[in-house]
Amino acid sequence: MEPIIITDSCCDLPIEYVKERNLPIVSLTFSFKGEELKDDLGQSLSHSSFYDAVREGETPTTSQINSQTYIDFFEEYVKEGKPIIYMCFSSALSGSYNSALLAKETLLEKYPEAILTIVDTRCASLGQGLLIHHALNLRDEGADHDTIVSWIHDNQLKLAHWFTVDDLGHLKRGGRLSGTAAFIGSILNIKPVLHVDDEGRLIPVAKVKGRKKSLRALVEKMQETAVDPAKQTIFISHGDSLDDAYYLADMIRKEFGTKDILINHVGPVIGSHAGPGVIALFFMASHR
Fold first, then answer.
1. Which residues, other chains included, contact 149 with Cβ-Cβ below 8 Å and sequence gap of 6+?
2. What is the rounded distance in angstroms from the CA atom of residue 121 to the CA atom of residue 4?
3. For residues 45 and 276, what is the distance between their CA atoms, to the nearest angstrom?
4. I want to staple 278 with a disulfide (CB 3.0 to 4.6 A). Which of 85, 196, 250, 274 is the partner?
5. Domains of the chain
6. Which residues, 6+ apart, have CB-to-CB distance to 247 below 8 Å?
7. Start-to-end Cα distance in the chain
8. How far are the Cα atoms of 160, 163, 165, 178, 274 from residue 204, in angstroms, in the given order?
9. Rg of the chain on CA atoms, in Å
10. pLDDT averaged over the chain?
């Protein structure tokens, strides 16, 4: 039986893509202007409205998915006897993975024959989305549950995540940068280059001066480790900074001859911590 691949809203995939590929999404939630909202990939709150509010001083907060939400979501498919692969947002960035494991344990007590695999992707944003993209391609080619899960485990640490941010204040608020470093960096126009490591954590790697140089640094990281980049599908996500995303995509096309590039917004859950202007590049590499 064809497996059901499920993920959560931190994948930051376009809603049109999600519908076309028949990809069920579990929504994380965030508090925004005094309301608790579901991250539904920009359907009920536009990405531009979200980032405009953050620029004006709004400070959204985020919540993990609880185990009961997972139980209710998965049980629909478990009842039908369908094998499930849930590809979860990095456990190093959210407690949702542990909630999913608790849900699995509860469901297996009621449905002991269920096939329910919980994958900690150790990915974020369209890095998670790109891993899902490859898994969906395997599904559509007729691969079974075990083949897809094996491929994910063999390749998830070859999916490179490279980020830069425009405003250091958001990293400071998230505890990833000291107040002094953020203040000095902002004055000097310093832009950090970060990546998601093998444990799924967001790690600062370098600092460059100026926005254009920080975008160029992402391309240089791709030069170092990308495997056959001309033939790859590349994903780029952005925090309401489409012109910079296009600028990065153009550099990649010129540098590598890559044709297949998907660009989409960073959603409100990750955007609450990264802020407007975040740019992220995702590709398959020899290693992260």
1. 85, 117, 119
2. 16
3. 15
4. 274
5. 4-157 (3.40.50.10170), 158-284 (3.30.1180.10)
6. 212, 215
7. 33
8. 14, 9, 11, 12, 13
9. 19
10. 92
